[in-house]
Specification:
The chain is mainly alpha-helical and 238 residues long. Helices cover 33% and strands 3% of the residues. The strands form two sheets. The protein has a two-stranded antiparallel sheet with strand order 1-2. It has a two-stranded antiparallel sheet with strand order 3-4. Helix 2 crosses helix 3 (39-49) and helix 4 packs antiparallel against helix 5 (145-160). The longest helix has 16 residues, at 145-160. It is elongated, with a radius of gyration of 36 Å.
Length: 238
C-alpha cells in the first residue's frame, strides 16, 4: 500500500481520537434505571438479573475493540485493548539480518533448502554432475557411436545449461515480480541455472575424508599378510 492511500491513513492516525462513544444512544435503558434507582439499588438489581454481572466483556461473546482487558492480577491499572496501539502507529518492524550482505542467507527467513543442498548435488540421474559424467565417459570406448553421442550431448549441456525447469522468469498469476532477481525465493521461479550458481558458492572447498583414506593399501596388506578376512568399512587395525 503506497501513495495517497498511505498518506491519508497516516494523517488519520495523527488526528485526535474521539474520547466519547460513537453510539451515544447505546445503553440508554441501563442509564435510565441507574438514574431512577440509584447506583446501589441498580447494581443490586443487575447482579440478580444478569448472569456473571461483573463479566469484563459485558456479557458479549467477543469483546469490542474499545474493551479494556486486565492483564495483571497485581496492578488493576494495567490493561490492554484490541489492536491498540494500531499497527500503523507502532514503530517499524526490525527485520534481523545474518550479516552476509549479498549472500543467499542474508535473509534469515529464507528457509529454502535446494539452493544450499550441496550434499545431494549431482545424485539425481535426471540432472547428473557434468564433471562426473565426463569422467565416466572417458573410461568408455571412445570409438563407440553411443559414447561419442553422449559426449556431444554432455558438452552441449555444459555450455547451455540444464534444459529443464527454466523457472517462470518472475511472472506469477498476480503479475511480474522483481522481488528476487535470482528467482530462488519461490519454487515456481527457481531455475537450475541460478540454483547451480548458488551451489557453486555454497559448495565446501574441502571435503573431509576418513582417517584411513590415505592408508588403504597399508591396511589391506595388514589383513592379507595375516590371512585374515578384510572387514567391511574402514576399520584401522593399528
Amino acid at each position: 500500500m503506497s501513495g495517497p492511500i498511505t498518506r491519508t491513513m497516516t494523517m488519520m492516525s495523527k488526528q485526535a481520537k474521539p474520547s466519547g462513544s460513537m453510539m451515544p444512544w447505546e445503553g440508554w435503558f441501563s442509564r435510565y434505571l441507574k438514574e431512577k434507582l440509584g447506583p446501589e439499588r441498580y447494581e443490586n438489581l443487575r447482579s440478580k438479573v444478569l448472569w456473571k454481572s461483573d463479566d469484563e466483556w459485558g456479557q458479549e461473546q467477543h469483546p469490542r475493540p474499545d474493551t479494556e482487558h486486565r492483564i495483571s492480577d497485581v496492578d488493576p491499572t494495567l490493561t490492554h485493548r484490541f489492536r491498540h496501539p494500531s499497527p500503523g502507529s507502532t514503530p517499524q518492524v526490525n527485520i534481523p539480518s545474518t550479516g552476509d550482505k549479498g549472500m543467499f542467507r542474508e535473509d534469515p527467513y529464507n528457509i529454502n533448502y535446494y539452493p544450499h543442498d550441496a550434499r545431494r548435488r549431482g545424485t539425481d540421474r535426471a540432472l547428473p554432475n557434468p564433471q562426473l559424467e565426463k569422467e565416466r565417459l572417458e573410461l568408455m570406448d571412445p570409438n563407440d557411436p553411443d559414447v561419442k553421442e553422449a559426449k556431444e550431448k554432455l558438452e552441449k549441456a555444459i555450455e547451455e545449461g540444464p534444459g529443464s525447469s527454466p523457472g517462470n522468469k518472475g511472472m506469477f498469476a498476480t503479475g511480474k515480480s522483481d522481488f528476487d532477481p535470482t528467482g530462488l525465493r519461490a519454487t515456481m521461479s527457481a531455475s537450475h541455472t541460478e540454483t547451480n550458481k548458488v551451489l557453486d558458492s555454497q559448495f565446501p572447498s574441502q571435503i573431509p575424508l576418513p582417517n584411513w583414506y590415505y592408508r588403504q593399501e597399508e591396511i589391506l596388506e595388514w589383513y592379507k599378510s595375516r590371512g585374515l578376512p578384510i572387514p567391511l568399512g574402514g576399520d584401522d587395525p593399528t
